[in-house]
What we know:
Blueprint: H1 5-21, E1 30-34, E2 41-45, E3 58-62, H2 79-88, E4 94-98, H3 104-109, E5 129-130, H4 132-136, H5 146-156, E6 161-164, E7 168-173, H6 176-199, H7 207-217, H8 220-238, H9 253-256, H10 275-279
Parallel strand pairs: 5-6
Antiparallel strand pairs: 1-2, 1-4, 2-3, 4-7, 6-7
Helix pairs in contact: 1-6, 1-8, 2-5, 6-8
Amino acid sequence: MPDSLAQAREEVALANRILANEGVFDAFGHVSLRHPENPExxxxxxxxxxxxxxxxxxxxxxxxxxxxxxxPYRLYGEVTIHASIFQARPDVMAICHHHAPAVxxxxxxxxxxxxxxxxxxxxxxxxxxxxxxxxxxxxxLVVVDPAEGKSLAKALGPHSMVLMGRHGATxxxxxxxxxxxxxxxxxxxxxxxxQAKLLGAVHPLSPEEIRKAAAYNLRPAPMERAxxxxxxxxxxxxxxxxxxxxxxxxxPAVAARPPRAKPAKAPARKGAAKKKSASKRKGx
Length: 284
Ligand code: MN
């Protein structure tokens, strides 16, 4: 969690540009972060394409989706997605709403999204489907009315992602890193699920595999490692030096995982030998 408002603004701007650079966002889509000091407020860019968002564009809104300090800037039409979910889910610290082309076919065909590889497990066991027609009939498909936001938040329930019929998806996380990780890997999972379906039957992860893989991947070190890579891609694209990677302390990895019968070092995991060098980051 960023420890100051200035840092939070930087990270929200960076998350916007990372998700644009990784192909999740185009002109549309948005990311929000609960205020680091006030859980009744959240940070989100002003009405702007994500690729263009800079820290100064990031505004502070309340849980009714109103700017806390009067601003001359236009807000996103869909701020109620964020306000409604932050209201309904105290555990949620960050939210992303997007229309990624890989995910849209699932929002259109109403085919269930399922984790088909380990990193896709970050979506959890269930991705519910919300259809604006159910409660609101024919709309412009955008979620602009607080009643629509509340209905969407209800459909999301305790889950990590919700598909939105003929529109897109909304993803939530316990941190900005977790949110970006989940958003990118659920989008990749959608591509892989579609490709696997073209080859034959889709054989998703079992519920137990989903729980284990999600717990394994959603630890600080893997999330930070991925964030650093995406931040480097972005820095290259923007022609500036990448920020030095934050040091992630060696964590008691076992504690974050479900209990095992054997000591953690016993299983011969692929890549286990590389772990030491992976955690020793090269300064960039
Ligand atoms: Mn939208």
